[in-house]
Design brief:
18 helices, 3-stranded antiparallel beta sheet, 2 domains, alpha+beta
C-alpha cells in the first residue's frame, strides 16, 4: 500500500493517526483495574525449567530495574490498554536500556545495536518507544537521579528517536538499510561532547570488548580433563549435560544436539554452512542466562575445528512472544525462526552464526523451538549504574537513534515521522508516561516481594 502513495501522502497518514491516538495520549499507562502482574509472571513458570524459576524471581527482586527487565509480559498487557497509532513496525518487544549494546559485526568492526529479540513481533511502533522511555526513568531512579535529571534523560532518548526518524525520511531506502552505528566513528563524533576521562574509559571498555570471544569463554567455562575439553560445573549457572541425566541420557542429548546442529546449518547461507561444517561438537552444558529468560532452556555448545580452535554457540529456547496475545500471532511456525527473522529485520549487522531449529523431544520429552548464535562475540553492555548524567544522556541518545533506525527498516518511516512531528510534544508525553510507569514498576516490584514473603512464590537470591 505505502509503495503506491507519495511521501507526502504517507506523512499525512501519520498525522491522521493523531485523531485516534493524540500525541498527548502517549502519556497514558493503561488502566489499573484488573491488573495482575505477579500472576502473569508466575504463569510464565509453566513452560520453564522448574528448579530455575526461583532464580528468575530472585534476580527480578534485586531492584525495580531488574524487575522491569523481566516484566515484558505485564507491560505488554498494560500497553494493550492504551491508545494505538496503528503504525506498525517490527517490534523488539523488550527495548529496555540494557538490551542495547556493542558487538562485533561480520566485517569485524564494533557496532552498537539492539541485542535481544526473544519477544520480537510486529506491532505499534510506540510500544518499543514506551518500553525504552520507561526503562530510562526506572534505571534513573535506581541510580539516584533527581526527577529533573530523569526528565533530561528521557527527553534525550525519545528526542533522538524522533530526530532519527526524521533523518531517515531524508535518506534513500537503501541508505536506511546500510545505516549503522559504528562505535569508532561514534567515539570520534562524541569526542567534543564528553570529558577526556569519559572518552578514555569508553575506549578501554571497547578494547576489553574485543577480548570477549570464544578463547575467553574457553578459559572461563572449560578445563582440560585427560586431554579433552570439558565444561566446568558451577551449578545452577552452568551444568554439564552428564550431570543433568545418566550416561545413556547424556549420550542421547549429545546425539540430539548434533542433529540440531546439522539441521540448524540448513538455515544459514551456503558459505556459513560450509564454515560450521568445519567444527565438531565436543561438549554441551545448560546455562542460566539473563533475567527475564531465566528458566527457558539455554544450552552452551562447545565445538572444535582441527582439534584446537574453539567455537561456542548458544542454543536458546524460543517460546511464544509476550506480545502475541495483544499484537497477533507470528507468521512463523517456528518461534526460533520468528526471533531470527526479527533480528535480521531490525539489526544493521547480525551474527554470522544466527539460525534456528526445532527439537522433537528434549530432556523432558517435549518439542522445543530454538535459535542459535555465538555465545560471545565482542559483546559488551554499558555499566549503567556507574555512568554520570552526561554520559547517560549521550548513551540514551545513541539508543534512541538506534531504535529509530530499526523501526525505519520495517515500518513506514514517513508516516511515523509525520505522526511524531517537529515539536517535542511526543517527547514530553513520554516523560509523563515514563515517570508514571516507573511508579507502577516500583509497586509491581513490591507486589512480587510480597508474594515471595507470603510464600506464594519462591525466590533464590544472589545467583
Amino acid at each position: 500500500m505505502t509503495e503506491e502513495l507519495t511521501r507526502a501522502e504517507r506523512r499525512a497518514l501519520g498525522k491522521a493517526a493523531r485523531t485516534h491516538a493524540p500525541l498527548e495520549s502517549n502519556a497514558e499507562i493503561g488502566p489499573d483495574a484488573g491488573r495482575d502482574p505477579v500472576g502473569l509472571i508466575a504463569g510464565q513458570a509453566a513452560t520453564r525449567v522448574p528448579e530455575l524459576v526461583p532464580i528468575r524471581h530472585g534476580r527480578m527482586l534485586a531492584s525495580p530495574f531488574t524487575f522491569y527487565r523481566g516484566a515484558a509480559l505485564p507491560m505488554a498487557a498494560d500497553l494493550s490498554g492504551t491508545p494505538s497509532t496503528g503504525l506498525r513496525v517490527q517490534l523488539c518487544g523488550d527495548a529496555h536500556l540494557s538490551n542495547f549494546g556493542v558487538f562485533g559485526a561480520p566485517d569485524r568492526r564494533l557496532v552498537f545495536d539492539l541485542n535481544d529479540f526473544d519477544e520480537t513481533l510486529p506491532g505499534p511502533f510506540e510500544w518499543d518507544v514506551k518500553r525504552f522511555a520507561a526503562s530510562l526513568a526506572v534505571a534513573g531512579r535506581d541510580i539516584g537521579l533527581a526527577a529533573k535529571d530523569r526528565k533530561t534523560l528521557v527527553m534525550a532518548g525519545v528526542g533522538a528517536y524522533r530526530a532519527g526518524m526524521a533523518e531517515f525520511t531524508e535518506m534513500k531506502l537503501l541508505d536506511v538499510w546500510y545505516a549503522r552505528l559504528d562505535v569508532e566513528a561514534a567515539l570520534e563524533e562524541m569526542g567534543s561532547r564528553v570529558s577526556a576521562e569519559q572518552l578514555t574509559r569508553t575506549r578501554k571498555a571497547m578494547a576489553k570488548a574485543r577480548t570477549r570471544d570464544s578463547m575467553q569463554v574457553l578459559k572461563k567455562l572449560t578445563t582440560l580433563v585427560d586431554g579433552h575439553r570439558r565444561f566446568v560445573s558451577t551449578p545452577p549457572l552452568v551444568v554439564p549435560i552428564d550431570e543433568l541425566t545418566d550416561t545413556a541420557g547424556a549420550e542421547q542429548v549429545m546425539a540430539r544436539m548434533a542433529s540440531l546442529l546439522h539441521e540448524y546449518r540448513q538455515t544459514l547461507s551456503a558459505d556459513r554452512q560450509h564454515l560450521v561444517e568445519q567444527f565438531r561438537l565436543v561438549g554441551v552444558a545448560r546455562k542460566v542466562v539473563g533475567v527475564g529468560s531465566v528458566g527457558t532452556r539455554a544450552w552452551v555448545l562447545l565445538l572444535e575445528a582441527d582439534g584446537r580452535e574453539p567455537l561456542f554457540l548458544q542454543a536458546k529456547e524460543a517460546q511464544r512472544s509476550v506480545l502475541e496475545d495483544y499484537c497477533g500471532a507470528s507468521r512463523h511456525r517456528n518461534e526460533g525462526q520468528r526471533v531470527v527473522a526479527g533480528q535480521h529485520l531490525m539489526q544493521a549487522a547480525s551474527d554470522i552464526f544466527l539460525g534456528w531449529q526445532h527439537i522433537d523431544a528434549g530432556l523432558d520429552g517435549r518439542a522445543r523451538d530454538f535459535y542459535v548464535r555465538q555465545l560471545r562475540d565482542w559483546k559488551f553492555s554499558a555499566p549503567i549504574e556507574t555512568m554520570v548524567l552526561s554520559g547517560l544522556v549521550q548513551y540514551a541518545g545513541l539508543c534512541g537513534w538506534t531504535l529509530a533506525r530499526a523501526h525505519a527498516r520495517s515500518g513506514d518511516r514517513f508516516a511515523i515521522s509525520g505522526y511524531l512531528g517537529k515539536s517535542d510534544k511526543f517527547d514530553r508525553a513520554m516523560v509523563t508516561f515514563a515517570e508514571a510507569y516507573a511508579d507502577r514498576t516500583e509497586a509491581d516490584h513490591a507486589a512480587l516481594q510480597g508474594a515471595v514473603d507470603a510464600g506464594r512464590l519462591e525466590a533464590v537470591f544472589g545467583i
